[in-house]
Design goal:
The chain is mostly helical. The protein has one domain. The protein contains 4 helices and no strands. Helix 1 packs antiparallel against helix 2 and helix 2 crosses helix 3. It is flat and about 45 Å long. The protein starts with a helix and ends with a helix. The relative contact order is 0.06.
């Protein structure tokens, strides 16, 4: 489904509402993999994240934003 959307985007070079929802669905699938496959590991990781300071969490958030924007620019 997502691959088909990516191929359609390559041909049309146009983003529609369905592409956004498909991308959001893919994010949810990826986010759900670790808790589904290893709930104990996910819990330990979450506890470690809770122990981080606000500045460290903001830094990881900023890194995620920058990587996402760069990937969008490269793939567009």
């Amino acid at each position: 489904m997502v691959l088909a959307a990516a191929l359609r985007l390559q041909k049309n070079k146009k983003v529609d509402g369905n592409t956004f929802w498909q991308a959001l669905a893919l994010v949810l699938v990826i986010e759900g993999l670790l808790p589904f496959l290893s709930p104990g590991g996910w819990r330990r990781m979450f506890e470690q994240i809770l122990a981080l300071g606000d500045g460290q969490i903001r830094f990881f958030g900023l890194c995620s934003i920058v990587i996402g924007v760069v990937l969008l620019a490269v793939l567009a």
